[in-house]
Structure formats: C-alpha cells, structure tokens
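Narrative of accomplishments. A recurring question from our advisory board has been how the design workflow behaves on a single, concrete structure rather than in aggregate. To address it, we present the structure tokens for one chain from the evaluation set, followed by the sequence designed for it. No filtering or post-editing was applied between the two.
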C-alpha cells in the first residue's frame, strides 16, 4: 500500500465521527511524545528496546488529557481537531485543568441557549435551581434565592461527607485543598482532588463538544472554567465523593481514583448523561437525549424571522 493510500484511509470522514455521547471518556498521557504518522496518531516513548509506539483511537476519545512531560506535533493536533477530539492541558496525574482546545466544526445552537440563560438574572437563577434539583434529587421551594441555594448545597455536602466517613471509617473528614502542601494531604483529600480534576477534564470536553462556553457559569463565576465547575458538581455526590472515601487506606489514592473513575464513567454511562443534563439545564422544554452536536451550519440572524439561510442574495427581495 502506498503512503498516499494509507493517508487517505487514515483521514476521518463525517460518517466515521462518533457522537460525543458515544465516545470514550478520557485518555491521560504524560512523559510521551504524541505524533502523527502515515496511519494515525500515536504516543511514542524511548525505551532501552528502542522507540515504542501506542496508537490512539482519536475518533473514539472525547478528551485527551496532556500531562507534564508531554509534547505533541502540529500534524497530530490537526488530526485531533478534525476528529473533534478536545485536548485539555492538565497537571501531574490529571490534577488541575489549565486549558482546552475547541473543535471548530460545531453549531452555536447550545451556545446561544446558554448565553440567553446566563444574561438574564431570572433565567440564570432558574438554571441554578435546576442544577440543585438534578444534583440532590429534591425540589427547591419557590422563591429560594441563590444565597439560600448555596447554603442548602453546603449543608447537603457536609452531611454527605459525614455519612461517607462513617461508612468507610475514615475518621472525621474536612475538605482541604492546598497546592503548597499537596503531599501532606490525607488519602481521601488526594483521591477527591484527583477524581475531581479528571471529572473537570471530561466535563470540559463535553461542554466544548456541544459548542457551549466553559466560562459562562450559573453558580460559579470569574474563571474560564466556571460552567465546567457548575456541571461537574452535578456528579460529585454520586460519583467522586464515594470513590474518594473508598480509597481512605490506599497507598496511591490519586492513581486509584483515576482508575476507579474511568470504570464509573463506563458503568454509569456518565458521558451521555452529561450531554443530556447540559441540554436539559439550558432548555428543559426542547432538549432531546439523542441530540447531537453536528457539523457547522451557517445561518443569518433576523430579529423577526429568527434564523434565515445564508448564502442567499437578499438584494433580489427589493431591499
């Protein structure tokens, strides 16, 4: 097979691209060089036996987490972009999320819905209420303010931590996250931070894949990851907190938390749940679980007609 033929086979087509809900959750890589060869994207590392390569299923990975010591070539980045794979730069072991790269072949449908909700105070509060109800499975009394909602959330999480500490016999627990004293943290805090960071990365990837802005949060504000934190909070009580407390005696809680979180993503089908939850939060009346971010569809805005087709010469309408 010629080089040109191999490149044609490796090039993605629209039919090959999976929905974000069908993608694998995330792939973490560090201390490797990610390159593109004639057949695909691979991670390569120098060993005593020579250069070893592992090919990455870029079209089936929603989020590629790049840890310290990782380098990536321009050709590899181009392939990831064509496949719609989000690339997120993270700290060691997936802890902390620094930046993400957005695929360009997206519609702005959900971004526009997000902006409309975010820009209106009443609509923004309504989204925050829906987040609380989705997170804890209970209704919020009418007229509840955002400050009251924060207080309710804080009490619920404290009660959850007490319950999990008793169940796993980890002793009295206090959430503590101090990057300057990272190695001094207890196993539960280390596991909780590592699991949360990976959850942020996956949530960030879903938000980018839907075409939403990770910066326009409804509860969190003032950071480029505000909406990421909002959405990730929906799953902490059900997923990351139980995982972290189950690792109270682990000798490597960060590694074990990432491994168990990956299993939870698969067992709970959390990726499609995140897609559906974001859609329902932003537009509960029209969100459909099978909605899929599609290829770019360009249209023109009209204050009376809504969206009208682009690529049309409207001068013939007597303008």
């Amino acid at each position: 097979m010629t080089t040109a033929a191999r490149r044609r086979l490796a090039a993605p087509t629209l039919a090959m691209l999976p929905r974000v809900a069908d993608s694998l959750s995330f792939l973490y890589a560090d201390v490797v060089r990610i390159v593109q060869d004639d057949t695909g994207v691979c991670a390569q590392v120098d060993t005593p036996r020579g250069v070893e390569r592992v090919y990455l299923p870029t079209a089936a990975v929603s989020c590629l987490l790049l840890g310290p010591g990782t380098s990536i070539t321009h050709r590899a980045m181009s392939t990831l972009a064509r496949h719609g794979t989000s690339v997120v730069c993270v700290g060691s072991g997936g802890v902390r999320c620094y930046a993400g790269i957005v695929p360009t072949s997206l519609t702005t449908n959900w971004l526009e819905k997000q902006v409309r909700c975010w820009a209106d105070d009443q609509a923004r509060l309504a989204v925050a209420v829906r987040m609380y109800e989705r997170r804890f499975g209970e209704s919020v009394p009418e007229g509840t303010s955002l400050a009251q909602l924060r207080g309710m959330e804080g009490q619920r999480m404290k009660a959850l931590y007490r319950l999990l500490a008793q169940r796993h016999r980890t002793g009295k627990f206090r959430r503590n996250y101090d990057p300057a004293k990272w190695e001094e943290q207890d196993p539960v805090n280390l596991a909780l931070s590592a699991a949360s960071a990976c959850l942020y990365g996956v949530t960030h990837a879903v938000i980018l894949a839907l075409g939403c802005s990770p910066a326009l949060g409804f509860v969190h504000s003032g950071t480029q990851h505000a909406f990421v934190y909002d959405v990730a909070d929906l799953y902490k009580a059900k997923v990351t907190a139980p995982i972290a407390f189950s690792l109270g005696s682990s000798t490597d809680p960060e590694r074990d938390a990432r491994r168990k979180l990956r299993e939870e993503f698969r067992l709970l089908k959390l990726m499609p749940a995140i897609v559906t939850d974001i859609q329902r939060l932003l537009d509960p009346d029209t969100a459909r679980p099978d909605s899929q971010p599609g290829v770019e569809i360009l249209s023109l805005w009209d204050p009376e007609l809504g969206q009208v087709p682009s690529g049309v010469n409207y001068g013939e309408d007597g303008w």
